[in-house]
Amino acid sequence: MKILIIKTGAFGDMILSSAFFQTVKVNFPEDDVYLLTQEVYRETVEYSPLFKKIFYLPAGYKFFNFLHVIRGLRNLKLDIIFDAQGNLKTNFYCFLAGGEKRYGTYRKKIGRLFLTKGVRKRKKKKNAVDKPRPSILEFVGVKQYIKDLKLWIPEQKRKNFNEFIKNYNLDKEKRWITIHPLSAKEWPSKRWGKGKFAELADKLIEDGYEVILVGSGDSVYTDEIVARMRNKPKNLVNKTDFYNLSLILEKSLVLVTGDSGPLHVGAAAGTKVIGIFGPTNPLLHCPAGVHYIYKKVDCSPCYKKRCSDMRCMKKITVEDVYRKIKEIEK
Predict the structure, then answer these.
(1) Which pTM value belongs to this model?
(2) How far apart are CA 79 and CA 145, in angstroms?
(3) What's the CATH number of domain 163-328, 3.40.50.720, 3.40.50.300, 3.30.559.10, 3.40.50.2000?
């Protein structure tokens, strides 16, 4: 039997989906499992032994390249497709790929038309609680579920990590605490604040920790954090790939981050993670075992990407986060 999983993002969701990928393979050990994802997430899955082949959607969805991918999928004559992404676009991909049975989640009723059976996605609610959600795997009688997240890091990348440590003068003898102060550029409301990150990092360095800043994108924001500090952290923003980020987090005692992709990478790496949450609901977005700090205000969670007030984030103090680090790092 030939099985296709569709998962096209985002970064943190790709890490969370590692449990889904493993569950499919454990329940269909003798069958060929394929994956359709985006090129930008190649590093998160390319070394996974679970997949017979991975199909990558071209950046920008160039029409002829897209048709080439779809043709390749149709030529497989797929038996089952699992749409683990669940938007209208991926629901349509199920139909285009021509699977005999197509199971998935969907947001819009029209998306359900492209599926053999589907589960409608819930809308985000202010008072949402962490209730079990129906799984599309129930349609094929799956009983054994894998819950552990997985990072697929090849041995050569692990060997190269020692050279990376030397190049950036990271002290292997110190206890590492990693801070990810950024968010996706369209979500500035998820950022705790430059002054608070600077104060926290200073306190940790003065306690003897090796403090490492990580992230990708807005280096101006993190440069301004460093400029406000009395001490100098190891600033590796825009200097790590997926593998080195994962290995840094494996070695770190604690990761401090907002609601972002590294939150999930840290959880998969087995790191103690503290998530700083404001506009989003940690009950819906925190992986199992992740610690979080969340102080509701009357509009929480609002899911606003931009906010001029930021009361929810302002209520979280440096002392709150510092105390939580001391509590869990032992």
Answers:
(1) 0.92
(2) 21
(3) 3.40.50.2000
